[in-house]
Structure formats: C-alpha cells, structure tokens
Amino acid sequence: MAGRTVIITGGGTGIGLATAKTFARDGDTPVLIGRRSDVLARAADSVPGAVTYQADVADPDEAAGAAEFVGEEFGTVDVLVLAAGGIGLLEPGPAVDAAPLTALAHEWTASFRSNVLTAVLLTEALRDRLASPGGRVLFVSSIAAYRGSGNGAYGASKAALHPYAFDLARALGPRGITVNVVAPGLVVDTEFFGGRQTPERRQALIDETLDKRAGTPGDVAETLYWLASHAASHVTAQILQVNGGAERGR
To answer: What domain range is 176 assigned to?
Structure first.
C-alpha cells in the first residue's frame, strides 16, 4: 500500500500532522494543506517526503486552486483526510457593541465555515480524482457531535459532517471508494483549546474516559491509517469514536 498520495487538510499541526507522519512512515507522500505558510514549512521539515500547499479551503477559489495543484502534481488522490477545523474564526469579528443575534450569527457562520466548508469544498473539488477503486475519504469529527461541548456551534458543525459522509459513501461506493468518519474525544498536544482549557476541565474530561487518560494525536492518526488500509476495504459509512469510551460516561 506504500507510495500513495495522501492529501491532509490541517496537516500542519495536531491530528493532521500526526497523520502525515504516520502515513509517511511507510513511504506514502503526505500533501499538507493549510492556511499558514510558516506552520506548513515547520511541519514539512518533520515529515519525510511531505509536500505543502497553502490555501484556505473554506474559500471556493482556494479549494479549486488546491485541487488543481494536486491534479497537476499527482493526478490521482489515494487518501483524502479532512482534518482542518476547530472553534471557528471569521475575520473581521463582530463589533464590540454588536447585537446578540449578530454575534451569534457570526459565531455559527465561523464554525460551519471552519468545520464543514473546509471538508466539503475540497472533497467535491477532488471527487473525480479519487482512486477508483481503492480511494479513501476520511473526516475528522468530534465527540461534541454526539453530546455537545458547551459550544453548540462547534458540535453542530461537526455533526453536519456525518450525513454528508453517509451520502458520499453511497455515491462513491460503486467506484470502490470508502468514506468514514473518526470522532475523537479529548486530544492533548493540539492547538484546539488555545490555552483556554483549565486543568480542572481537562481532568474532568479524562475522568469521563473508561481508560482514564487523554487521547493523543497519534491515537487518531493510527485509526485513520487503518481505515485507509486494505484491511478496512469493506468498512464504509461508519463513525469510529476514539475517546476512551468517554461517550459512555463514567
């Protein structure tokens, strides 16, 4: 299976970077797509054979540009990993004295842009380039899609990926392409919380797991790697929760 072209959005940090390293380990070529050129450059230095492309794939023109680059450089996409996302940011932000509903609309628009459009636009732009048979499309969702997280916009935007993935699996199945979703719980060593998480909140999330530990980017990366392997060729339209059983509660 080595020698595949693996497109990874959000590939410069966290889960995306860990995924790139996991695929590169066996000789695949990770193509890291992200918004920040400096972050991509640092990531590429740590991933053998990595290629980078700077783009905000929530923008239709930039998503099209990324797909054109991939087509020119590689032709076929063997694995597409949609790991970009997070607590959405949209510039410029609402005015300090904005009406509550205006601020709320901004928050929800930002989350759907960050977590849904980044996945949908690039997937559709690369849809005809997915290897047939054998292509893999993998979305990174969240435990928040099942039970919320205190940020309704984030959980709702991650949940929106699920029916899209199911529809895509149905459409691409006849081409021998699988489509799956991984939904992590608490994952440390990422930029997700941006220093906002208190030690008490982190411990509370760990206590909810059945194995009493936080997840790591590598936990998620290895799951994505398995889903992209031949061993998972009959697994499609599934959501794999990687959260130490936290969705079950204590």
So the answer is: 5-248
